[in-house]
Write a structure and sequence with these properties.
alpha/beta, Rossmann fold, Glutathione S-transferase Yfyf (Class Pi), Chain A, domain 2, 11 helices
Length: 382
């Protein structure tokens, strides 16, 4: 017979904040996806959002992520996030960090750049958001990061590094801008070959920013590998040793020579064929590259190890616990992997979406607050 779910009684604000240096206290939405208006107050521990599929559970987690990072984990554009038949959307997030309150207001518009304010003061760059609240998003799609293409793995690096390192944000943004201009010029050269000399200007900038991107990525993957080796060994029952390695498409010191050598091919293809925009990460388990030859079980275990390592790295770098957003992941994991994941999140604020509470009952998992989501409305059940 199943044991009943243990639900903690709600505590006073001061006691709920004890021992947690950063928590999300509440969120307000207006005209966000399928929500006309919404106000939710979260517990500092485990918050469960349950309900049938396509009711709006993921949208709440997405709104939290958007407000903390300025981007959707789905790569959605602002106009796709705004409620149907509306021109604007608002998100308001209340955060408490080291007992200091922060209010993030985000104003999304269909045809204009988003507006962001921190404690009522508008900010000019989205990167000013980073560091207020670090969030880790874990969705079923992340379980396929090993078998999917390199672009998914680059996106994983960028999503996390942008939260942890503002210098990386600057280098990556500038690199992408220069890359866009260089590719535009390569297409124009077909009609105006006399412009080829101007490629040198773009190449110099691309190399400068590209070297920084490569350097930051190498350091990030190196630290992640150290953490992941221990976690994966435990997760696999001491049966598998894993090593993740950064695979830059070109080495920093040789980027300039590579660009020059590949220029004829770039001009022929009308695009830049070398640089960090083509990087990858390798996953070697017991000497086997599991991107190509791993079983689905091996790939999923490695993906879970990767996300748990990401959590630990954020803790180490930011010296704070991140907020974990778990989007219907438990239903995709077997009981052993569920136990590992649930035991790893005991001490951090977590928001979990699911279709039912059975997995938590079976694992005797501690739940602090339960919300039922039905077609764009949320009911607090405790």
């Amino acid at each position: 017979m199943w044991s009943p779910i243990r639900v903690k009684p709600l505590k006073s604000l001061s006691s709920r904040l004890a021992g947690k240096s950063m928590i999300i206290e509440s969120i307000e939405l207006k005209n966000y996806r399928n929500y006309k208006e919404l106000h939710m107050e979260f517990n500092q521990g485990t918050n469960i959002l349950y309900g049938d599929n396509a009711q709006g559970k993921t949208n709440i987690l997405e709104a939290v992520y958007v407000c903390c990072t300025s981007k959707s984990h789905k790569s959605a554009k602002d106009r796709d996030i705004i409620r149907f038949d509306q021109d604007e959307s608002h998100i308001k997030l209340q955060i408490r960090k080291n007992n200091v309150p922060y209010r993030i207001d985000m104003h999304l518009k269909k045809n204009k750049p988003k507006g962001i304010a921190i404690n009522g003061v508008p900010i000019r760059k989205a990167s000013e958001l980073f560091g207020i609240a670090n969030v880790v998003f874990f969705s079923p799609e992340d379980l396929n990061i090993i078998k999917n293409g390199p672009s998914e793995r680059r996106r994983f690096i960028d999503m996390e590094l942008c939260q942890l390192n503002k210098l990386y944000v600057h280098s990556l943004v500038q690199y992408n801008k220069v890359l866009l201009q260089r590719n535009k010029l390569l297409k124009e050269l077909f009609f105006k070959p006399e412009y080829e000399e101007t490629l040198d200007v773009w190449d110099m900038q691309l190399v400068n920013y590209g070297r920084e991107v490569i350097r930051f990525r190498r350091e990030f993957i190196g630290r992640l590998n150290e953490i992941m080796q221990k976690i994966h060994l435990s997760l696999s029952g001491n049966k598998e040793e894993i090593k993740i390695s950064y695979e830059p498409y070109t080495i920093e010191d040789q980027f300039g020579q590579t660009l020059k050598r590949n220029r004829p091919q770039d001009m022929k293809q009308k695009t830049t064929l070398s640089g960090p925009h083509r990087d990858d990460i390798s996953f070697i388990v017991n000497g086997i590259d599991i991107r190509r030859f791993g079983s689905q079980g091996q790939q999923r275990t490695a993906a879970l190890s990767l996300k748990l390592s990401e959590l630990e790295l954020v803790k180490a770098v930011s010296r704070d616990n991140p907020i974990l957003l778990l989007d219907d992941v438990l239903s995709e994991l077997d009981s052993s992997r569920q136990n590992h994941l649930l035991s790893a999140i005991q001490d951090i604020q977590t928001m979990i979406t699911c279709t039912g509470l059975d997995d938590f009952v079976n694992n005797r998992f501690h739940i602090d607050k339960i919300f039922k989501v039905i077609d764009g409305t949320v009911e607090n059940e405790n």
